Amino acid sequence: MVKILVVDDEQRIREMIRKYAEYEGFAVDEACDGLEAVDKAMKENYDLIVMDIMMPNLDGFSACREIRKTHENVPVILLSALGEEYDKIHGFDLGVDDYVVKPFSPKELMMRIHAILKRTSQSEKKELIKINDLTIDFTGRIVKIKDEKLNLSPKEYDLLFYLVKNRGIALTREKLLQNVWGYDFFGDERTLDTHIKLLRKNLREYSRYITTLRGVGYRFENGN
Predict the structure, then answer these.
(1) What's residue 123's pLDDT?
(2) Which of 31, 71, 184, 196 is deepest in the core (most CB within 10 A)?
(3) What is the average per-residue pLDDT within 120-135?
(4) What are phi and psi of 178, to 5 degrees?
């Protein structure tokens, strides 16, 4: 059974998420702040964590950073009442998989959880692509420039892999959001732009391969 950890200092929020998650067939643990979340994550293996950002004792960003030290690949969805771009960028830098602004639809949250779990459970087809000194290992989810492994967030990996697999093809924003995020995206399209910005920064000189198609979307170029 899929086991998720719900972390929020508001009991009503935890109860609401638990109600919908258990209806979907998930086992649910709760934590009321970041410290308790870190403690529970040290003792249990969770398939996914839903975590609020603004909490007493230890905020969601700090808790996520601590959990990532021992559970590098556990998917994390951050909850926030702020919705500022800085918070999203900071969260994505920490490797979170998604970002939900309060108030949110619990049904939409469940859709996001299902999409992330589906993605993490699917094994990539064994494939390795080299572009000069850039190596993209789909199976191992490893991206290197020369011998240096790049520290990408889970969503950056997904976005890069999708772009590269469809290199030379013009991809609309809608298509990227639907196929990389895994559901009908109802949020701000700037989420895609934020990830592209972070991905380009990490790719350094290879960022030139990601071309912006004004009014359309993006394309990963074929040429070397």
Answers:
(1) 43
(2) 31
(3) 73
(4) -70, -40
Q: What is the C-alpha to C-alpha distance for residues 65 and 37, in angstroms, rounded to an integer?
A: 12
- What confidence tens digit (pLDDT) does each residue in 177-211 have? 888 876 555 556 788 899 999 999 999 999 999 99
Topology annotation, domain 128-220:
Arc Repressor Mutant, subunit A (1.10.10)
Domain ranges for the chain, please list them: 3-121, 128-220
Residues 129, 162 contacting (CB under 8 angstroms): no
Q: Name the CATH topology of 3-121.
A: Rossmann fold (3.40.50)
* First CA to last CA distance, the chain: 46
Question: Cα–Cα distance between 166 and 220 in angstroms, integer?
Answer: 7
CB atoms within 10 A of CB 101: 16
211's tokens: 């071309």
Angle at the Cα of 96 from the Cα atoms of 59 and 129, rounded to 5 degrees: 155
149 vs 73: which has the higher pLDDT: 149
Report yes or no: 195 and 202 within 8 Å, Cβ to Cβ: no
Q: Residue 147 burial (CB < 10 Å; 0-12/13-18/19+)?
A: exposed
Question: What distance in Å separates the CA atoms of residue 62 and residue 85, rounded to the nearest whole number?
Answer: 18
